[in-house]
C-alpha cells in the first residue's frame, strides 16, 4: 500500500512540476472530459482495491467466536463496575484511589481500590457500556480504547501477552 501511495504521489508531483515549468501551447487540452473522468474514477478504484483486503483482515481479527473470559464493564461518573459474566455473581466497583491514600510508588490518578484480574495468553471479550453519560474505557498499553455509551453495548477483544499491571485511564472528556 505504501508503494502505491508513493507512486501516485510521485506521479502527481511530476505532473505539477511539468505544469509549472512548461508553457501551455494547446488550449484544447483544457476541455478534456475523458481525462477528467479517468482521473476521477481511477483513484476511487485504487482506494477500493486497497481498502477491501484491509477491511476483511480487520473484521477477521476483531471477532472471537469462543472467548475464554467475558468481562462486562459499566461506566459511571467517577468509577467503573465490572462483572465476570462467566461466573456466578462475581462483580465489583473500581474507584480511583484518592491522592492522600496513595502508598509510596503508586501512581496518582491511575491507582484503583479494586483491580481487574485477567488471564494471560487467552482471548478476552470486553462488553462495555455506560449507565449515565459518555465514557471512554482505555488501556493504552494494551492498545484498547472503546467508548461507553448509555443504552449501547460495545465489544472489544484483547489478549495480554505477559503478566503485569496495565493501567486504564480517562482519555476523553466524559459527559452528556
UniProtKB/TrEMBL annotation:
Entry-linked Gene3D superfamilies: 1.10.287.90, Cupredoxins - blue copper proteins
Residue ranges annotated for the Cytochrome oxidase subunit II transmembrane region profile domain, each copy included: 1-65
InterPro entries: CcO_II (IPR045187), CcO_II-like_C (IPR002429), CcO_II_C (IPR034210), Cupredoxin (IPR008972), Cyt_c_oxidase_su2_TM_dom (IPR011759), Cyt_c_oxidase_su2_TM_sf (IPR036257)
PROSITE patterns on file: COX2_CUA, COX2_TM
Pfam families: COX2, COX2_TM
Example GO molecular function: copper ion binding
Cofactor needs: Cu cation
Gene Ontology BP term (one): ATP synthesis coupled electron transport
GO CC annotation, single: mitochondrial inner membrane
Membrane topology per record: Multi-pass membrane protein
Record's keyword annotation contains Translocase: yes
Record's cofactor remark: Binds a copper A center.
TM stretches of this protein: 37-59
Residues annotated as domain Cytochrome oxidase subunit II copper A binding: 66-176
Assigned protein family: Belongs to the cytochrome c oxidase subunit 2 family.
PANTHER family: CYTOCHROME C OXIDASE SUBUNIT 2, CYTOCHROME C OXIDASE, SUBUNIT II
Biological role: Component of the cytochrome c oxidase, the last enzyme in the mitochondrial electron transport chain which drives oxidative phosphorylation. The respiratory chain contains 3 multisubunit complexes succinate dehydrogenase (complex II, CII), ubiquinol-cytochrome c oxidoreductase (cytochrome b-c1 complex, complex III, CIII) and cytochrome c oxidase (complex IV, CIV), that cooperate to transfer electrons derived from NADH and succinate to molecular oxygen, creating an electrochemical gradient over the inner membrane that drives transmembrane transport and the ATP synthase.
Protein name stated in the entry: Cytochrome c oxidase subunit 2
Protein source organism: Microcebus murinus
Classification of source organism: Eukaryota, Metazoa, Chordata, Craniata, Vertebrata
Gene giving rise to this polypeptide: COII
Amino acid at each position: 500500500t505504501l508503494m502505491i501511495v508513493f507512486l501516485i504521489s510521485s506521479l502527481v508531483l511530476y505532473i505539477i512540476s511539468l505544469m509549472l515549468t512548461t508553457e501551455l501551447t494547446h488550449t484544447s487540452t483544457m476541455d478534456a472530459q475523458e481525462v477528467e473522468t479517468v482521473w476521477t474514477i481511477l483513484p476511487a478504484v485504487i482506494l477500493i482495491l486497497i481498502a477491501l483486503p484491509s477491511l476483511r483482515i480487520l473484521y477477521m481479527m476483531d471477532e472471537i467466536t469462543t472467548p475464554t473470559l467475558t468481562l462486562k464493564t459499566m461506566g459511571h461518573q467517577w468509577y467503573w463496575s465490572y462483572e465476570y459474566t462467566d461466573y456466578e455473581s462475581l462483580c465489583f466497583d473500581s474507584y480511583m484511589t484518592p491522592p492522600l491514600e496513595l502508598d509510596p510508588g503508586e501512581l496518582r490518578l491511575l491507582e484503583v481500590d479494586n483491580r481487574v484480574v485477567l488471564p494471560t495468553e487467552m482471548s478476552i471479550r470486553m462488553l462495555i457500556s455506560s449507565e449515565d453519560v459518555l465514557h471512554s474505557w482505555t488501556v493504552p498499553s494494551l492498545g484498547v480504547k472503546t467508548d461507553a455509551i448509555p443504552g449501547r453495548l460495545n465489544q472489544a477483544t484483547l489478549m495480554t501477552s505477559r503478566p503485569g499491571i496495565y493501567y486504564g485511564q480517562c482519555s476523553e472528556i466524559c459527559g452528556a
